[in-house]
Predict the structure of NAD(P)H nitroreductase YodC.
Amino acid sequence: MSQLDEIVQQRKSVRSYDPNYTIAKEEIEKLLRLASEAPSSSNLQPWRVIVIKNKELQKELRAIGNNQAQIEESSAVVAILGDSEAYKNAEEIFNQNVAEGHVSQEIANNTIKNTLNFYPNVPEETRKLIAAYDAGAFAMQFMLLAKDRGYDTVTMGGFDKEKFAKRFDLPANVFPITLIAIGKAQAPAFGTSRVPVESFTTFYE
């Protein structure tokens, strides 16, 4: 069994955290940087992140998050957001690809042109679905990286997204997707069963 296999199996949703344990801002930034290697549609990287380490703000957020104790007791809450207008960053992203030597300017220019021609004509709801899917890959990568470093996490979709958006003054194109509590477990997570692969998979050979 590889180390990655072990991390995937060890990661569980922890809901009880040591309220006195802290994680440095720099450590969370490192996790976010590595998580941003996740794939995304047209490489537009539509995830946006708010990290809440302030205890008073975590307490306030708990009221928005259905009174879930882990919001207040964890070392930090990482809010994963999506940007339905991420395509507007295409020029910056692909010119950076050129600067880093990944693609030629010609390829970048064609990609920018195609992106700016396509995405504005896609319905906003579809763009939000794309952003949510991509942000989900980012979130999963973040949680696995956290576990690899000895931290515990739990993802929470059960919070008042309208109140969250208002509290953090989100622009209309940026919307909350999930909250991730991160810290040190004070009590172990419950084990969970998994349905067999054959129950959800069809092979054509």
Q: What stands out?
A: DSSP finds eight helices and four strands in the chain. The helical segments are 3-10, 25-35, 55-64, 69-73, 90-99, 105-118, 124-148, 161-167.
